Fold this sequence. Notes:
Elements: E1 4-10, H1 15-20, H2 26-35, H3 46-49, E2 53-59, E3 62-69, E4 83-89, H4 91-95, E5 102-109, E6 112-113, H5 117-123, E7 129-130, H6 133-146, E8 149-166, E9 175-190, H7 193-202, E10 215-219
Amino acid sequence: MTLWLTRIVPSPSSREARRDLSGSDQGIRLHQRMLQMFPDGVEGPARAAFGVLFRAEETPRGPQILLQSHIEPDSSRLPDAYGAVETRSLDALLSNLHKGMVVNYRCVASPVRKPGAASREAYKLPPVVALSGNAAIEWWGRQADAGGLEPLHITAHPLATVRGQQSAKGPVAKQRIQHARTQFDGTARVLDAELLRDTLATGIGRGKAYGCGLLSIAPAR
């Protein structure tokens, strides 16, 4: 399966881009915007059908949006003058992965745990508890290992929580969305190249529709 990586550098003069990147519901608006670049009328959730994962991040030159997908997106479906768009295939990167290879990685994820019924009752906990600090780092270590990577170095810093309401049809109309986020960066050794390819394609953790889960890697120099 071919994966496509698209980099969008939003134009400061685009009102639509500025709106998409502002506020705590940024992830919800970007979810809708990214899906605009893919065909309509698919069966089931469009995000899963096209393998859409994305991440908005700040760079020294300003904000950018990284979009990964199973098919090449159609940037002409973005609003006029939304920003500069560049798309490339990840085939070369994926085919060169091998056991023992050291890579740099980045992933914005939503680290959580789901307490059992007894713990929820005893400590009055919600069904899903967001993790931070060392607990989040330990969570990332487990996720990376399960995804074919052995972390050699981990840095983690919390990001703003995605909050808002996702409009939908039927019984989930106006569904409340909330995903705590942490950005993980570092180096790792490839344990299982095939498993890592699957992880790159499917993403990690919760909140994939709202800017979480996209794992980016590059060979370490």
